[in-house]
Amino acid sequence: MPKKIIFSDKAPAPIGPYSQAVQVNGTLYVSGQIAADVAGSGDIKAETGMVMQNIGHILGAAGLGFSNVVKSTIFLKNMDDFTSVNEVYGSFFTKDPPARETVQVARLPKDVNVEISVVAVE
């Protein structure tokens, strides 16, 4: 089956040679999203909220929503932010949250504090 590139002008444009999302065989693979606009503000909740909003815009461009997400990966610069990120992230998944892993990494693009990617199905 051919792949379909998904793009939302409401989410940040890719900063490298990748697509915001690719859809194939009813599955949407959303690239890691960051919130460079609020990075460095010290407000991890605001940063996480913006990341999740960006993901929502991309899901919407594919005709999907957060209820279609089956898997996510959270990359954190500091695992001490886990509880705050969870609080915001969880507000987007009020029923049947997806499978997930969360890992601490040494550094993220544009020196943000959190990056999240998701996989969704129709």
UniProtKB/TrEMBL annotation:
It comes from the Bacteria. CDD domains: YjgF_YER057c_UK114_family (cd00448). Pfam families: Ribonuc_L-PSP. Belongs to the RutC family. This is RidA family protein. It comes from Dyadobacter sandarakinus.
